[in-house]
Design brief:
Ribosomal Protein S5, domain 2, Alpha-Beta Plaits, five-stranded antiparallel β-sheet, four-stranded antiparallel β-sheet, 30% helix
Length: 200
């Protein structure tokens, strides 16, 4: 898995028209399946008069979780071309919904593929694509006497930390950029009395 991934910074819309049919696209940054389901439901409710509400999404830095939906259009004519635009830009943590208002003329499978692809592409072209770091959470335990040595490593690698407890034995949950993970753990393990293990 890479230590960087690409997503969109904020919501954006797109539009494609063909033979009276109108395809309106919505792109959103999301990293939770629950949030995605809620947004799909919200769009279906808001645009209840649209004939179809097709979508594709992918989440996670490893890009392993995704879904496509044709919502009544011929199989493979809507969700897949939408997803193809997400793949083409190597995006993750993104949802793209394309709704269709039927214009009375059948477009055929090829026409639908082009329409859904074009609408999704328009929305993503209007998005600002950003690159984010993949982080690993590591649980660290150390003796209070080693505080300065530990903080020196934290400062050097600009590590975020949370759930800190400072006592005779101290503990922190460190947020480490995956690229630096082995180096940071080696440095911390070299400090007497320091123990690291994966968090969560």
């Amino acid at each position: 898995m890479n230590d960087l991934y690409k997503t969109i910074q904020s919501n954006s819309n797109g539009l494609y028209k063909e033979k009276g049919s109108k395809f309106i696209a919505f792109a959103y940054p999301f990293n939770s399946e629950e949030d995605i389901k809620a947004k799909i439901g919200e769009i279906q409710k808001q645009y209840y008069d649209a004939r179809h509400h097709c979508f594709a999404w992918r989440i996670g830095p490893d890009m392993a979780r995704y879904r496509v939906n044709d919502d009544g259009e011929p199989s493979g004519s809507a969700g897949k071309p939408i997803f193809g635009q997400i793949q083409a830009r190597e995006l993750t943590d993104v949802l793209v919904i394309v709704i269709r208002y039927f214009g009375g003329t059948l477009l055929g499978v090829g026409g639908l593929i082009n329409a859904y692809r074009s609408a999704a592409s328009d929305a993503l072209e209007r998005s600002r694509i950003i690159e984010l770091k993949v982080y690993t959470l590591v649980q660290l335990e150390f003796e209070y006497a080693q505080m300065n040595s530990v903080m020196k490593v934290i400062k050097e690698f600009q590590l975020g930390f949370e759930d800190q407890q400072f006592d005779l034995v101290c503990s922190l949950t460190l947020k480490i950029w995956k690229r630096n993970e082995l180096q940071v753990i080696e440095r911390l393990s070299a400090i007497k009395g320091c123990k690291t293990e994966p968090a969560g």
